[in-house]
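thought: fold this chain, then report.
action: predict
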Amino acid sequence: MSSTPDVIKKFREAIRAFSLLTRGDKVLIALSGGPDSVVLTHLLGLVRRELGLSLSAIHINHALRGEESEREAVWVRGFCQKLGIPLTLKKLFWPAGKRSNLQEKAREKRYRAFLEVAEKEGAHKVATAHHADDQMETVLMRFLQGAGIEGLSGIPVKRTLGQVTLIRPLIFLTKKEILTYARQNKLKYKTDSSNLKDKYWRNSLRLVVIPKLLKVNPTLSNNITRMTLSLRRDSDLLNEVAGETYDRLAQKGDRSVGFVLDPFMTLPPAIQIRLFKKGLEEIGPGIRGLSHHLERMLDLAANKNQKASYALPGGRYFEKEDGFLRIFAATKNGRAAAILMNPDEVESWRETLAVRQDHALMREIRRGLKGLARAKKTTTLNGLF
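observation:
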């Protein structure tokens, strides 16, 4: 069983290994009042003076559990007052009627509130209390949904959202370690009753499936965390190469992005699919089940037919015509956004790229991959597992 010193050591090691905090950071803590966020707040308090941190907190009242939600908000206010941490309370409001995809919508509203408050306060970091068991649940859910390398990379240790960096310093701690730390340090917290009901898919996974998997493999959580770090490194490298390639090949218009077919088809499929994804992200919000649509777009691009089209959710379309691939959004009058290139322009662009049978661009991409791989530093993870 992990002791308080062990937990503190892991917490400090995560901060060091992934450069989660720097001296003088203003940190906004996502504080639900549950054991995870309470322990996160306590641990940040331990390094507060050492790193010269300025701490504040935000509590989101989802208004989904009636009086229980209200009591939690009151409790969190008192908790922050005792610690001398400024608190922002935000209450979510929901339209009357059927609430579909409620958990996903709540998450979107929650993160939007985090960023708004962080930017208002000038916070450099937003700290959330995701832990190793959350990582395990997320990866298993995505595995069951047929996710690719990015989905199986799980919850990132940190990521940038606008001017703010989202950090997860507890991601290498298990739920058991967090609860033990709370007990040993006599930390009080609130329990969300909805987490104990198996009506949500994630809860069913947590309450029913994972306990059985842990009986088969007690180290499953650590194994999955190691896997996510490995996949994240590969995914980051591919995304970096894809980003550089996108900047060179993408032709942008009014809510549209296109690629000349010939040079596009010389690229590895792993880069092609990322170019499509980046193009879709530039012209509209995210799409649920995106991997299925991306695979379909790849199939159409590689197909021998000179013309093809495909309708995507959210009023977006994919089109193959005259040696050109185009992703675009429909305008308000129902017509497609302006075509980026006519056939003569496509031919001129093809000649400019000078992509011939020797596949020069392909060789350059491979050189770039090797160079980036050499440049990447290996993160030492001593003490995290």
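thought: worth noting. Residues 220-249 form the longest helix (30 residues).
final: tokens above.
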